[in-house]
Amino acid sequence: xxxxxxxxxxxxxxxxxxxxxxxxxxxxxxxxxxxxxxxxxxxxxxxxxxxxxxxxxxxxxxxxxxxxxxxxxxxxxxxxxxxxxxxxxxxxxxxxxxxxxxxxxxxxxxxxxxxxxxxxxxxxxxxxxxxxxxxxxxxxxxxxxxxxxxxxxxxxxxxxxxxxxxxxxxxxxxxxxxxxxxxxxxxxxxxxxxxxxxxxxxxxxxxxxxxxxxxxxxxxxxxxxxxxxxxxxxxxxxxxxxxxxxxxxxxxxxxxxxxxxxxxxxxxxxxxxxxxxxxxxxxxxxxxxxxxxxxxxxxxxxxxxxxxxxxxxxxxxxxxxxxxxxxxxxxxxxxxxxxxxxxxxxxxxxxxxxxxxxxxxxxx
Length: 364
Ligand SMILES: Nc1ncnc2c1ncn2[C@@H]1O[C@H](COP(=O)(O)OP(=O)(O)OP(=O)(O)O)[C@@H](O)[C@H]1O
What we know:
Layout: E1 13-22, E2 25-35, E3 40-44, H1 51-59, E4 66-71, E5 74-77, E6 90-94, H2 105-110, H3 117-130, H4 146-158, E7 164-168, H5 176-192, E8 196-201, H6 204-210, E9 213-218, E10 221-226, H7 228-233, H8 238-244, E11 248-255, E12 258-261, E13 264-267, E14 276-281, E15 286-290, E16 307-316, E17 320-327, E18 333-339, E19 349-354, E20 360-363
Bound molecules: adenosine-5'-triphosphate.
């Protein structure tokens, strides 16, 4: 008789209860997370929230005040015991990734490698082939473009087969069009090498594009973790919605588990009577209708009630158009985005409805 037992894999990286203070201010506040081999976690948050400090503690260039770091289940650092940075088998890639200017591409990539010369050469060639730069093996960094240098830096970081790769805004020095391609190539290579990746970014698009898991960080704490889709569609508070897009907010008070608004009633299950709530929705979830003889579309249970607004400003942004409305009901401004070109003139009357299944109700 045999049993199929699924033992959860030991995480490649685990940090537990990491804390760091500077001048009495807690900059990293009880941060814990795990990353499996071959997985990419993006630490996403506004400037100054403690992302880089978290990364630096894992790299070992900054000491935590408390907390532990484990690699493949083995303790590598707590407040007493500490494996030095160079023995952590962790690769680093930063925005200012500076290659050594006086070393050839091959020597740059071989820099962290030990062992027989022929083996080192084979690894260098393997990686340069993977990043499609083998033809530059004997060139020097200044002979390469910024994007090419970035790929050499990636090859250099991966050469010693790090178990973990820490990346701090590694693509922010590249221009937009170059960036997407390099991001995708980098991701493919990291997966191939089965490295666990922790990538720090303040750009939601970058996190959505790269991450298997997003850890949303704010004021030193991880406030939400999950697959990009889940973090985007089930944000835990208003700030989490706002981090990924522009938002609209309606204010309302709850009576009988319902919040009454000019767009109709919204369900607020479990919210006590008399609680002030904010109904938060993204501009892409506003539907627009033309005015027909002073009237908008009829209310339906799915779409709710239409509210009248006057176009204040409209702009074409490339993939979509952004239209701002001054709303009749309280003079507030609501934003709607529409695919492609839609640039109605200021003063035009339209009727707005919101996709109720895409609205979030949070206590004010
Ligand atoms: N060595 C230090 N001494 C004092 N304060 C520091 C030190 N390092 C970081 N800080 C402060 O800790 C806070 C968090 O910094 P950190 O670099 O971790 O943020 P971040 O989220 O990575 O921001 P950014 O995206 O701007 O790099 C900041 O307010 C910063 O000024």
